[in-house]
Amino acid sequence: MNGPEILIPITFFICTFAAIFxxxxxxxKERMAMIEKGIDIGSIKAQPQPYKNLKWGLLLIGxxxxxxxxxxxxxxxxxIASGVNLDKNVPIYFALIAIFGGLGLFISYLIEKxxxx
Length: 117
Known about the structure:
With 117 residues, this protein is mainly α. It has helices spanning 4-36, 52-75, 77-82, 90-116. Helix 2 (52-75) runs antiparallel to helix 4. The longest helix has 33 residues, at 4-36. The chain is flat and about 70 Å long. The termini are far apart.
């Protein structure tokens, strides 16, 4: 391993360590601030999230539909248009996954909004 090949694993481990350390540091600072203000840390409970499963389910369904549609388009429309299956159609996968995943989250928002009214 020479040059950039060695830098990638080193950078990955350093960034992972920094992220974990940063999260722990900020959680500790938050707890210390709560103690200084006199808030009992043991009495704080997590807020219930009744629509969490709905949100994740619709997000994953949307991402799956986007991936499926991208595959179908890549194998039919773009293959016919280009004549050869080149790897230039990769962005369509990411774009459709993001679009349909966002659509799933938007539908989840509409359902939550309708239920709370």
